[in-house]
Hints:
Blueprint: E1 2-6, H1 11-23, E2 29-33, E3 42-45, E4 48-51, H2 55-60, E5 65-68, H3 72-84, E6 88-91, H4 107-110, E7 120-122, H5 126-142, E8 144-153, H6 160-171, H7 201-214, E9 220-227, E10 234-242, H8 248-256, E11 261-263, H9 275-278, E12 284-291, E13 298-305, H10 309-325
Amino acid sequence: MKIAIVGVTGMVGQVMLRVLEERNLPITTLIPVASEKSIGKKITFNNKEYAIISLADAILNKPDIALFSAGGATALEWAPKFSAVGCTVIDNSSAFRMDHDKKLIVPEINANTLTLEDKIIANPNCSTIQMVLALAPLHAKYKIKRIVVSTYQSISGTGIKAVQQLENEMKGIDGQMAYPHPIHQNVLPHCDIFEASGYTKEEMKLVRETQKILNDYTVAVTATAVRVPTAGGHSESVNVEFENDFNIKELITILTNTEGIIVEDDLPNNIYPMPINAHGKDEVFVGRIRRDLSQPNTVNMWIVADNLRKGAATNTVQIAQYLIKNNLV
């Protein structure tokens, strides 16, 4: 099994390497790929050194699977070239997510829709993944009518430049700005660029991707995405209105029994999900589960996950695992 990682030197690419090691995929050849400035540099995987190569050279190696985390422009240009040589591409960018002929996959929800014909597979946005993982089983049981979500997203979701901005500001150092304003001791209601509607692209990803993954375009979603000065982990306040009423204990039991979900909801002991505790973990944590007292059939919950792992690298590797296990590559 030849597996390429495109964008191996980036924050997500580095986490992909760790997750691949942890999950012990049957890799015979690892093909690390990055931009021109990184070609020839060495990375370590399973205690062995590999030299980074170019995209063109990676295609010549004909990988079975390519995990892309190199941005939308690179994906649009190169993913079709990889797929043309028989490689299955799993892409972390937004390039293919809303293409009607490309599947948007959270393995626990809809990996069973994948076939041998799916040569370019889209990985959802980090904030979408953690939310839909918790909501999919509830939608199946109670039928979601409307979702109101406010996100509290880590700077790591922006990338290394944002991490450096926060570190510089904490030390009182002037440096490059990833954001239009300071992030230290501040929150920015501004994730990604603004669309004509006044919503950001990040907010609309939560709308569009949720509907596509749940395969239900009647689900109404409205979102506010906020950047907060935490180093890792995204948090979400989610208000969900159902068509049908629910029993709160039954709802919690459903979440508790859902693969990939850990319920942390012990208020007397101040136990609830926090990004500091989600760091380095693959699960999605759900807590503060309570009925909305202002209207019927509605629940509030707090959802937290490590955005670089389940929100990106882990979900991608899980898709690869599913493909290998089911002989789809």
